[in-house]
Each structure stands twice: as C-alpha cells, then as structure tokens.
Design a protein that fits this description.
heterodimer, A: about 240 residues, alpha/beta, Rossmann fold, 6-stranded mixed sheet, B: about 325 residues, alpha+beta, Phosphorylase Kinase, domain 1, Transferase(Phosphotransferase), domain 1, 2 domains, 6-stranded antiparallel sheet, elongated, ATP-binding (chain B), transferase (chain B), transmembrane helix (chain B), Kinase-like_dom_sf (chain B), transmembrane (chain B)
Chain lengths: ~240, ~325
C-alpha cells in the first residue's frame, strides 16, 4: 500500500496544479493525504480549499492541524487511510460475495467477521509512506514540529505487524528550479538519523504539484525491481474468497 | 469523512435499534471516546451505557474486542462476562444510520475524582485491583492500549473498571489508540507494539499523573523529543515524597522489567504491605501520651521482673 503525506501551510503557486498531480498519483495506486498547518490562522480559506481538493483527487483524507497536534494528526491520517484502502477493497468483495455494497448494510452480527478481516489486513499489509514537506519560507518555524511528527510516525510504523517504510522529501528543492529533494530514502528505522532536514534553504515558491509528480516518479522507480504493483488486490482475493 | 461525532442527544430521546428494535431512553451523557459518545440510557428500568459513533468499522472493532474478551472469560468460567448487552444501528433524524452498542453500566467516578473525594489512601488498593484487571485482559491476549486517568472508573470500595476499549489491541499488533503522555513511544522507552509492558508503562505514568500531575506536565513540556526518556520519569518518581514507597516499582515498570501484569501486581502488593508505609507518615514524632504510657509500662515491667525474680528465688 502506497501513500503520500503532504504537509503544507499554504497554496501552491508554481507549475502543474497539485489537484491534477494528486489525481495522477491516485491513478497509479498511491493515496494522497494532506495535513494543513494552521498556527496563526495563516492558512487562508483558499488554502483550505486546496488541501481538501488535493486529498479528494488523491483518494485520501485532509485535516487542518496546529503544530502542537501535528504528530497525532499525521498518525491518525496514516492509520485511517490504511483502514480505508482495505475497506475499499473489502467493499468490492462484499458486493460480489454478499451483495451488500457497504458494511453498514450488513446486520451487526455479520459485521464482526468482516471488520476482523479489515483490522487484520490493515495491520499486516505492507505500507510505504512518502512524506512530502512544504519547506517554503513560512514553514521554517514549524519544521521542528514536522521532524518530531515524522519520528513519531516512524515509531508507529515500526510497531506494526506488516512491513513498513517511509521516505522524506521537501520542496522546493533548490533555487535552480529543482522541484523537490529527497531527504531520506526508504527506511524502516530512523532512530539512527540525526537530522532529517539539514540546513534547509527556505525559498518563497511552493511548487506542490510538481513535487507530487516527482514523488510518483520516485515510487515508480522503486517499483522497477521485483515489487508487485497491485499486491493489495492479489492478497485480498486470496483472503476473502 | 467525519471522525468526530458532534450532535447531542437530549434527555428522554428514544434510541431504537434498526435491526433488533430494542429501545433505550437517553438519560445523560457519560463521556466521549475517539470513536464516539457514551450515554447513560434506560431500558425496562435498567440502566446501561450506550456508545454511539459515526463509523461502523471503528465501532465494530471495539465490539469485536469486547466479544473476544467475553468469550475468553466464559471459557474460564467467570460470570462477569455479560459486559456487552446489545449491538445495533440507530436511524437518526438526519436520515443516516449510526451504529451503537450497549454495555453494562458501571456506577462510579473516574479515578481522579475518586481519589479526590475518598482520599489518596485508596490509591494502593485501587492500583492493585487495576493491575489484576490488566492481567486478566492480557491473559486473554489483549493490551488495553489507552490506559489513562479518564478511562478508569472506580465503583464502591475502590473497585476499578476499565472503560473505552477503543485502544484495545491484540498482543503483537501496533497499539490502535493512545494518549501521548502515557505512551511508551512518546518517551522513547520502546515501541508501540501491544504487550504487557506497554500497559504497565502507561500504568506507571498514571501513578505520576495522579500524584505529581503538575510536575509531569512540566517535565513533558520542558524536554525536547529526543531527550524524553524513561529515566526522566523514574527520577521524577524518586524525588516525589508521595511516590517514594513505590518508586522502585515504578522504575521497573518504566524500564519494562516486569514479565507480566501478575508479576507486577505481586510486586505492587509487596510495597503495599511493607510496614514502612505508615499511615501517619514515617517522619511524624510519637505523641507525648504515647511516650508517657511507654515509660509507665516499662516501669511496670521492671517492677514485675524484679518481683518475679525476688519471689521465685
């Protein structure tokens, strides 16, 4: 299962629309979640709209969060999305097997087993989370909280039964038109990493869309090897039927 | 998708189950968990606690936990297993279905309130019962997960019950719900994988929270994420006059040194009954009348011995 988690505090202002980029991610099997940081009400309504749109297009969830609650929000979104992804797949099976289109349509005493399967798969399926961090100038005072949230997420991922990994990117990458930069390649354990963001040069532009495309590309390169693309679906069919 | 469930049910509202037609009348709200709200309800002159939420999957997983625990208890022949009473959906005025489940109602107050009203002397025995509750749960293969002051209800004579099973997690899986300050991962003291040690760690933080809540909050706020350690918690416990008798126990819990909750409960019992834990406090001087009485009885003893020796020889 693949996720992109975008953490931002403003609107994109350069390049392709992030909503289109998120739709592309979704189309290639990656769910996009968005956390909008609101500290002094600096995320105006336009920004709020944008993060909702990005998440909707990316098949994920969006939340506004104060930096103080960032760790919890990141945790919760990641977990919820895993459950939701599994739920979608299970719904698909439900339709075919039981003729019910959702869990709510089943009587309560039949739900137990289905939910047990969802819980089990949510816990055991493999999970990759690419964190995409907005490092535009206004985010500078919040990067400590972001780093803490990443470390906290890493603890939770490590505690899962299924294999989990995370990678970290920030954008914009540099003054020379680089949209996005990889800070941390796929890893299962970041407790040894001293600083995730070493001396970032904050820039004014926010190329959210191009950065998302960059991460999709990164995912696809990683898939080049022997990873199976639709492992969730394959596993589901085995499990439920 | 909404996760917060934010409408209120006024007193007297009937909640009728869509599938089994059971009708409950709302008395008052009891509390709120991450997955829904809990109300005190009445049905045929019995009180129950009813939890209602917005997400059928979240609520059903709680029901699954409760059912699995009940089954385990049945196997062990315990009769207190009838915790879960009913599971159904409520069709609200907005036309949507909201899942709910009904539990036995536990009359009591939260642990914090209980100690405030009844006195802190109750804490050792409540703590001991609570450890045994955890042990029972662990033996069924579950960690409670979100152990905190708000999730412990104490009934008469210091008998605690755990409420809100939203965080309950099968051993070996990642804990589903937790509260930062009680969380082993937050203090860099280990993973969030559910096991006995996870709950015992939270239990130890709960002890700090009850006796040194202010200092615990200051400690958590004052440390950087990387400098939060179990050693800081153990130090806090060691420097607190109130926690002193149990500071050794707490240190072991913070460092995950108990094999299981039964072992932890046995160790708890040991410090509980240690004679050094005097009700009047170890530093209090003996009252004057007691000294006088002691002197008088010493004189009587000496006289008796003298008299015995004299008459015997």
């Amino acid at each position: 299962m693949k996720q992109i988690l975008l953490v931002t505090d403003g609107c994109s202002n350069v390049g392709v629309s992030p909503v289109i980029a998120a739709a592309e991610a979704h189309a290639s099997g990656i769910t996009v979640n968005v956390v909008g940081i609101v500290d002094q009400g600096d995320l105006v309504e336009f920004g709020t709209n944008e993060i909702e749109e990005i998440a909707k297009a990316g098949g994920g969830l969006s939340r506004l969060s104060h930096t103080r609650q960032l760790s919890q929000t990141v945790q919760m979104l990641t977990r919820k999305t895993v459950v939701q992804t599994i739920q979608h797949a299970v719904h698909h099976e439900l339709k075919q097997v039981l003729g019910a289109s959702s869990i709510e349509e089943l009587p309560p005493d039949k739900r137990g087993e289905v939910v047990r399967v969802i819980d089990d798969l949510s816990e055991t399926s493999s999970l990759s989370v690419a964190l995409l961090i907005d490092a535009s100038a206004s985010m500078k005072p919040k990067l400590h909280a972001v780093e803490e949230a990443i470390r906290d997420l890493a603890i939770s991922l490590k505690s899962r039964q299924g294999s989990s990994e995370l990678a970290v990117f920030h954008f914009p990458g540099s003054a020379y038109g680089e949209d996005c930069k990889l800070d941390l390649d796929w890893t299962r354990d970041i407790s040894g990493v001293n600083a995730i963001f070493p001396r970032l040069q904050m820039r004014g532009t926010t190329p959210t869309g191009p950065a998302i495309l960059h991460v999709i590309d990164f995912y696809q390169k990683a898939d080049y090897g022997n990873r199976k693309n639709d492992e969730t679906d394959g596993m589901m069919s085995d499990y439920v039927v | 998708m909404t996760t917060s469930f934010d409408w209120s049910l006024p007193r007297g509202t009937p909640i009728r189950g869509k599938w089994k037609q059971g009708t409950y009348r709302v008395e008052r709200p009891l509390g709120e968990g991450a997955n829904g709200k809990v109300f005190l309800v009445e049905r045929q002159r019995y009180y129950y606690a009813l939890k209602i939420g917005a997400d059928a999957v979240d609520l059903q997983s709680e029901v699954n936990v409760l059912q699995s625990i009940a089954k385990q208890k049945q196997k062990q022949g315990s009769k207190s297993g009838a915790f879960l009473v009913d599971v159904d959906d409520y069709q609200a005025a907005d036309g949507k279905d909201y899942p709910f489940y009904v539990m036995r109602y536990i009359k009591g107050m939260t642990l914090g309130e209980y100690l405030q009203r009844q006195g802190k002397e109750w804490f050792p025995v409540v703590g001991f019962h609570l450890l045994n509750k955890l042990a029972e749960l662990h033996e069924a293969g579950w960690a409670f997960g979100d152990l905190k002051v708000e999730n412990v209800i104490v009934a008469d004579f210091g008998r605690p019950e755990l409420v809100d099973y939203g965080g309950a997690t099968a051993f070996g899986k990642g804990v589903r719900q937790f509260t930062e300050i009680y969380d082993r991962g937050y203090w860099n003291a280990g993973s969030r994988t559910a096991n006995a040690g996870y709950d015992l760690f939270s239990f130890a933080v709960l002890c700090l929270q009850l006796h040194e809540g202010r200092r615990l909050a200051q400690l958590s706020a004052g440390l950087l994420p990387q400098t939060r350690t179990q050693e800081e918690l153990a130090k806090l416990a060691a420097t607190s006059p109130q926690l002193k008798p149990m500071s050794g126990w707490l240190r072991k819990a913070f460092y995950g040194e108990f094999g299981n909750a039964r072992e932890a409960a046995a160790a708890w019992q040991q410090w509980m009954h240690r004679p050094s834990r005097e009700r009047s406090g170890p530093g209090a001087p003996a009252p004057r009348w007691m000294k006088g009485l002691f002197a008088a009885s010493a004189v009587v003893l000496a006289t008796t011995v003298y008299w015995l020796l004299r008459s015997g020889l």
